[in-house]
Amino acid sequence: MLAYEAVVLIVGSIMGILTSYTDIKTGFIFDNHAFPLLGIIERIRGATEEGEEEELPLPQWVGKVIVPAAEIGILLYLYLGLSKGSILLALSGLIGLIVGFILGMVLYYAGAWASGDVVVLAAFSALLPLPLSYARVVAPYESTYPLYPLSILFNSILAVFPFLFFYALGVLLVRKETEELKAVFTEGLTLTLEVSLWIMAGIGLAIVLENRGIALNPVIKYLLTLAIIAVFGKYKKAGDAVGLAVLGYLIYAGGADVVYAYGKLFAVLYVFKVFFSVVKVLRKKALVEEVPVEELREWDILGETIYINGDDIVRDRRDFFEVLKEAVLSGNLKALSGTQRDVIASPSAEGLSGEQIEKLKEFVREGKLENRFLRKKSMPFAPSIFLGFLISALWGDIFWWLILKTAGL
Q: What is the pTM for the complete model shown?
C-alpha cells in the first residue's frame, strides 16, 4: 500500500463513519467532519447559528471532532503533483472538490439531497479524484483526469439499489397498490425492447464499416449509437424494422453468440428500466406522506410548491424532474427558475422555516388552502456516499463495469 493511499483510506473512513453516524442519528452533518474551512466561512458569513448543533441529541464531543478531509485531499495531491512535476495531479484534489460540489448541487436543486450531503460528496471527491491502485474497473477518462467523483456518486446510488428496490415494493404491497407494483416491471417494457434493437442497429453499422476497412474509435462508436437511438426514437417504426433486420442478419452470421449478446444487452437495459421505475415510486409514493399543517415542523421538507398567483394560493405537486421535462419539451427553460411566482414554500432541501409554517397555518385558517400537505420522509444519504467511496477506492466503478458487460467485454 502506498503511503498516500493509506492516508486517503484512513481519513475517508473516519470521515465516513462520523458523517454516517450523525446523519442516521439526527439527519444533521457537521461541516467540521468533512470540510472544516467551509464551516468557518459559513460562521463568518452568519449562515449558521452557534447554538444549532448543541440542540442535537448527540454526545458533545462528537460535534467537536475535526476531520479536514477536503483540505487533506487538496494538500495531498498538491504535494504529489509538485513532487512529480505534474500540474494536473497537483490540482486534482481541488478539481475533484469542485466536480463533487457540482454533482452534489445537481441533486441538491433536484430536492433529493440536503446541503450536508453535497459537502460529504465534495470532501470524498477531494480525497479520491483519481482511482487508487486497488481499483480494478475504471473508465478511461477517470484514470486520466480527476473525474473519479463520478464513480463515487454512481457507486453510492447503485450499491443501495437492492435496498431501495425492496423498500419500494414493500410500500406498494402494504398499500395494496397493485397497478403501481405491476408498472415497476411492465411500464416502459416495449421501449426497453426497442432501444435494445436500436443499439443492435448501431453495432451492426459499426461491423459493416469495419468490414469495409473503416475502423472507428470507441468514442465515435458510442456517439454513433447515441445518434442512431435519437433518430430511431423519433421514427420508431422505421427504427424497429431496421433493428430487427440487423439483429436477424447478425444472428445469421454469428449464431447463438449473437442471441446471447442481445439477451445480455436487453437484461442490462431492463435492470436500468426497473431502477428508474423504482426511483419514480420512491419519489411519488414511498418517500412522501400527506399530513395536516399541525404536524409540520421546522426543517421538514415539503413535497410540493405553494405559491401566490394573483389572488389565489396555488399548490404545485410536480417534482423537479417533471418540471424539467416540461420545460425542455416546451422550450421554456425560464420556468425552472420560478422567478415568475411568489413562492411561499417549496421542496427546498434546507426544509421549512418557522415563518413559512406560520404562513401556511394562516392560509389554512382563512380557508385559502386545504389542510393537507405533502411532506418528504427524511433519508440519510451519508452512509450510501461513504459506501460509494469505499467501493470506488477498493474495487472500482460499478457503472463502467455494467457498460463493459453490456458491450460483452
A: 0.75
